[in-house]
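Summary for the lay section of the report: proteins are chains of building blocks that fold into shapes. Here we show the chain for Signal recognition particle protein and then a coded description of the shape we predicted for it.
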Amino acid sequence: MFDTLSDRLNNVFDRLRGRGALGEKDVRDAMREVRIALLEADVALPVARDFIARVTERAIGQEVLKSVTPGQQVIKIVNDELITMLGGEDANAGEASPINLDVRPPAVVMMVGLQGSGKTTSTAKIAKLLKEKQGKKAMMASLDVNRPAAQEQLAVLGEQAGVATLPIVPGQQPVDIAKRALESAKLQNVDVLLLDTAGRLHVDEALMAEMKAVASVSTPAEVLLVVDALTGQDAVNVAQSFTDEVPLTGVVLTRMDGDARGGAALSMRAVTGKPIKFAGTGEKLDAIERFHPSRVADRILG
Ligand code: GDP
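The coded shape description reads as follows.
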């Protein structure tokens, strides 16, 4: 993950570190290389541009160039701005964005996304993580009545994860399944109910209407969009389309394990304004991590 970007940035930084004094031109030359490295990592152009502008403005300040270790200071600025790019502007930008379960139980986590993005797998991974790491009583329900065997797939994953799934009632439609899941979760004192909604091949109106209908009957505490990191800027565009239609609270970025470039991870927050809350790192149900911008920045610059 981020291998090429990391190598290229470190080359630039080694050169900066190796020099005693730095002038404005040195900073601008270095930033030109950083910009190319970001674009080659498939970072969205406006995000790369904004990043370079912010770093340059801070780095050519007198207190940096006149300091004893100007190279070190520039690297520190890159690190800070990378965290902002990954995590946003607020003071806690470096920390993982929390999952909001702070509502009267059951807290509903609605999972949305395109077909094949890893939505069903991520639903089971998050349920397992909440159960094992946060001691939550979790339950899952599949509202995917389009894809044959989608409901059975979630039931199988539930067995593997040790998390209950709502029994399947053939022919029942998504909104009714959501209502039944809520009733059942209340009766069983479930803390978190995860709703795995139907995927589609493309963002379309019918999909959005269904998302809205499900959201209106289940008042989710979290609406998490699952997108595939390997699709790069397409993942960011999908997130943008969903953001315009449903009140997303965060993103789950899957297949980070196979993503050598990292463009989706790097541009998601800046383009969509939505935090990446989880990163999928493999096919197994334990292969999921909270997304810590500061740790990701360390990995890139490490
Ligand atoms: P859905 O159609 O969005 O529900 O997608 P699925 O959950 O069925 O996942 C599609 C495929 O992607 C399955 O083979 C999963 O095992 C795989 N997958 C999901 N998440 C990840 C991930 O983070 N890394 C890897 N390598 N594979 C994943």
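Put simply, here is one thing we learned. The first helix runs from residue 3 to 17.
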